[in-house]
Amino acid sequence: MSTQRSYFTDEFFRFLRELKKNNNREWFQANKQRYEKEVRDPALQFIADFAPHLKKINSHFLADPRPNGGSLFRIYRDIRFSADKSPYKTHLGAWFKHERPFDGSAPGFYLHLDPEDCFAAAGLWHPDPKTLNKVRSGILNRTSEWKKVKAGGLKIEGASLKRPPRGFDADHPFIKDLKQTDFVSSIRFANKELKSPKFLEQYTESCREMSPLVAFLTKSVGLPW
After folding, report:
1. Is the pTM of this model over 0.90?
2. Where do the domains of the chain lie?
3. CA dihedral in degrees (58, 61, 65, 69; nearest 10)?
4. CB atoms within 10 A of CB 27
5. DSSP letters spanning 91-159
6. Does domain 10-77+84-220 have CATH number 3.30.700?
7. What pLDDT digit, counting tens, does each position of 178-196 carry?
8. Is 160 in contact with 181 (CB distance < 8 Å)?
């Protein structure tokens, strides 16, 4: 029997708040051990413990607890092309991707941890044009399956075109969906929910709830579900 535990404590969120006020290399280096102990390591443990739950949702997706190159995004920002030169992210993100390499954008599950905004998300965010066209073709060719996704009550979020994409009928019953340039759904959490020993179960259930969208998108881009 698995033992419930808390992963994301007051110390976890306190560190991120302090980092937001002290987003510089000197402060981070002085507090790096705190980051590893209070933020990184609990997140990696969560990812490791989520892995068997994710396998039950779909065996093709990975929860990889490696500190580098795994599911956890780096805390370091890419500032090469950004006007904001703050060196560190003030949130933590984890991306649970498909096991198979994919040339383009691939759907997956996401966890976003921020003192002001925590949520689970799933789907495709900013897909490349080729991948986006595959999803739109999926909606056209597998209409009944898309209807089931929509019937589940998931809200499709993200950016959308003002006009129908070129080559698509403006009168199509799913034209609103065909105009989407992102296909994402999300479920938000209060901080007290993340601190609860039941959060692993709650996050797992959120991913399961959003899995029909991920299943449709995964099959649309040609990956196994």
Report:
1. yes
2. 10-77+84-220
3. 180
4. 14
5. SEEEEE-BSS--SS---EEEEEE-TT-EEEEEEESS--HHHHHHHHHHHHH-HHHHHHHHHTTPPPBS-
6. no
7. 999 999 999 999 989 999 9
8. yes
